[in-house]
Amino acid sequence: MSTQPDTLELVRASLPRRRARERRLKVIGVSAILFAFAMLATLILSLVSTGYTAFVQSHATLQVFVDPELVRESRLPRGKFDDVLTAAVAEHLPGVDMTDRASRKEVEKILSNGAQYDLRDMVVADPGLIGQTLRITVPLSDPFDQLNKGGIDRDTPEQNRRLNDSQVAMFDTLKAADVISTPINWGLLTNADSRFPELAGLRGALVGSAWALLVCFLISFPLGIGAAIYLEEFAPKNRWSGLIEVNINNLAAVPSVVFGLLALSVFIGWFGLPRSAPLVGGMTLALMTMPTIIIATRAALKAVPPSIREAALGLGASPQQVVFGHVLPLAMPGILTGTIIGLAQALGETAPLLLIGMNAFITSAPEGPMSAATALPTQIFIWADSPERGFASRTSAAILVLLGFLITMNAIAIFMRNKFERKW
Fold first, then answer.
1. C-alpha distances in Å from residue 13, one per residue of 16, 24, 25, 193, 197
2. Could you tell me the pLDDT band of residue 2, with boundaries at 50, 70 and 90?
3. 268-303: b or e for each residue (b if 16 or more CB lie within 10 Å)?
4. CB half-sphere exposure, 224, CA atoms < 13 A
5. Residue 400 confidence (pLDDT) above 80
6. In a 3-state reduction of DSSP, which class is residue 62?
7. Cβ(337)–Cβ(409) under 8 Å?
8. What distance in Å separates the CA atoms of residue 43 and residue 33, rounded to the nearest whole number?
9. Contact in structure between 135 and 62 (CB atoms under 8 Å)
10. Confidence of residue 46 (pLDDT cuts 50, 70, 90)
């Protein structure tokens, strides 16, 4: 009689261990997912908690008398518009002695430096406003904006605060007079960059990124698809085509700063193209994006069943007709998905754009691909490096805007893949 245990007994004896391992594997998997979500939530919450204040801006609504003694039509656009605004603010501060130079300076610091230019533009556009009283809304300067949003602690000793007790009292008087409001800060998207935090916006960076992505798409999309079609459908399978494939896969993993150095040397050094131009930025991003598009396109072409090719060839179609009339249309959803993902990756690149100078201080949106510009990632870098406290919230807000664009582009890619994907 055999003393060896039968198979059923061995299986039964191993079941507890196998089930325990399965439970441990599930616990590890769920823990990893929860940890990833926790890190993502921490990132988003930290950005929102820091940057939500940048989506609103403190303003003062004033009755401004355009004094003909201070603003003369014959001298426009010159005029003492700052004095006109200071007088309007002083009307709500009866306890402040405006003949005292120090007190007057404190009142002048309440409004943003850009307020006088807003008033100037209004008067220049309509000189008939001279001598009239206008109701205008202008932004506060950054320290008073921070005070209104709670960014300045009133309990901090006066010598350690950006605003002294007199300035805080002035603000409280204006607040009690219902002069201060906090509307949505549309200027964050419509204004260009400025050295004053309350006036700084992302318009120049958004337009610069749009131009750079357009150039990137126009170069990388046709070249990437053409290279992928040739390698997948027409190139002979030999050592040279194998070497090219290996190098394309390696280029997809090359650090972005290397492409920036290449662009600095070739596009700017050899070709003499202007620094900070979206054209150079788009060409640099195209070099980075093409390997991704080639790999995604080849994968999409491989996913088309061979029977499609064989059926078309059997009906007398040429190889070119097979590829461009049958295979490519069926692979296009996967190609577009890979292209959008590649462009989303290019949108978030910073290092190559820094090397070609797209981090210059630009106070207006670029008019074309040859104009000096910044991009969203480089604008974030500029603001993060600024010593002004007001730029801290704008940095987080700009990151949220960038994340919004990236999430939108990836959502479009997922939608297109699910809607147009063919299954055989």
1. 7, 18, 20, 71, 70
2. low
3. beeeebeebbbbbbbbbbbbbbbbbbbbbbbebbee
4. 33
5. yes
6. strand
7. no
8. 15
9. yes
10. very high
Question: What are the CA-CA distances from residue 179 to residues 41, 137, 172, 174, 236 (Å)?
Answer: 38, 9, 10, 5, 76
What pLDDT is stored for residue 77 in this prediction? 87
Strand partners, 60: 138, 180
Whether the predicted pLDDT of 3 surpasses 70: no
Query: What angle is formed at CA 325 by the lines to CA 324 and CA 327, rounded to 5 degrees?
Result: 70
Q: Determine contact, residues 363/193, Cβ cutoff 8 Å.
A: yes
Q: What is the 3-state secondary structure (H, E, C) of 380-423?
A: HHHHHCCCCCHHHHHHHHHHHHHHHHHHHHHHHHHHHHHHHCCC
The stretch 81-87 carries a mean pLDDT of: 91
Residue 116 contacts residue 141 (beta carbons within 8 Å): no
Q: Which two tokens stand for residue 337?
A: 């998905």
Could you tell me the two tokens for 275?
Answer: 């620094």
Average pLDDT, the chain: 89
Q: Round to whole Å and give the CA distance between 143 and 146.
A: 5
Report pLDDT for 4: 56
pLDDT digits (tens, 9 = 90+) for 64-76: 999 899 888 888 8
Two tokens at 259?
Answer: 């492409």
Q: Is 234 exposed, middle or buried (0-12, 13-18, 19+ CB in 10 A)?
A: exposed
C-alpha pair distances (Å), 281 with each of 24, 359, 370, 385: 49, 11, 10, 21
How much is the pLDDT for 5? 62
As a whole number of Å, the end-to-end CA separation of the chain is: 56
What CATH superfamily classification does 203-420 receive? MetI-like (1.10.3720.10)
The residues spanned by each domain of the chain are 54-184, 203-420
